[in-house]
């Protein structure tokens, strides 16, 4: 599927790659699952790049609509799990 990933032109190349890695991790949670701590590391890096809650909501909403997933539910579920547990959600 062709998607226009929501990114900022103000980010460095490395930051764009890290944000895209987070988006991929969200998709992975909804497709095959991912270990909780690994996912939260992607989210932690995403939050370093996007510290604003309103910007996070805006970017995630755009991504969620295109990918038919939910960043919010992926992060919420990961935070509820214990270290070492797998997280997997369905669309």
How would you portray this structure in words?
There is one protein chain. The chain is mainly alpha-helical. It has one domain (13-84): Orthogonal Bundle (Annexin V, domain 1). 64% of the residues lie in helices and 4% in strands. It has helices at 13-31, 36-49, 53-67, 71-80, and strands spanning 34-35, 86-87. The chain has a two-stranded antiparallel ribbon. It is globular. The model has no long low-confidence stretch (mean pLDDT 95). It holds the Pfam family UPF0223. InterPro entries: BH2638-like_sf (IPR023324), UPF0223 (IPR007920).
Task: Please supply descriptive tags for the structure shown above.
single chain, 91 residues, mainly alpha, Annexin V, domain 1, two-stranded antiparallel ribbon, 4 helices, 64% helix
Ends apart, CA distance between termini: 16 Å
Roughly what is the average pLDDT, rounded to an integer? 95
Whole-number count of domains: 1
Q: What overall form do the CA principal axes indicate?
A: globular
User: What would you give as the CATH superfamily?
Assistant: BH2638-like
CATH architecture: Orthogonal Bundle
Any idea of the CATH topology?
A: Annexin V, domain 1
Helix content: 55-70%
List SSEs in N-to-C order.
HEHHHE
Number of strands: 2
Instruction: Report the C-alpha radius of gyration, rounded.
Output: 12 Å
Strand order of the largest sheet: 1-2
Strand-residue proportion: under 5%
Any low-confidence stretches, pLDDT <50, length ≥5? none
Largest sheet: 2 strands, antiparallel
Task: Indicate the structural class.
Answer: mainly alpha
């Amino acid at each position: 599927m062709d998607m226009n990933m929501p990114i900022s032109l103000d980010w460095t190349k490395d930051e764009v790659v890290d944000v895209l890695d987070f988006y991929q991790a969200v998709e992975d949670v909804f497709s095959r699952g991912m270990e909780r701590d690994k996912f939260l590391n992607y989210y932690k890096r995403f939050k370093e790049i996007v510290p604003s809650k309103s910007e996070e909501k805006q970017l995630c909403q755009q991504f969620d609509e295109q990918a038919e997933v939910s960043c919010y539910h992926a992060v919420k579920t990961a935070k509820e799990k214990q270290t070492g547990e797998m997280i997997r959600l369905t669309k």
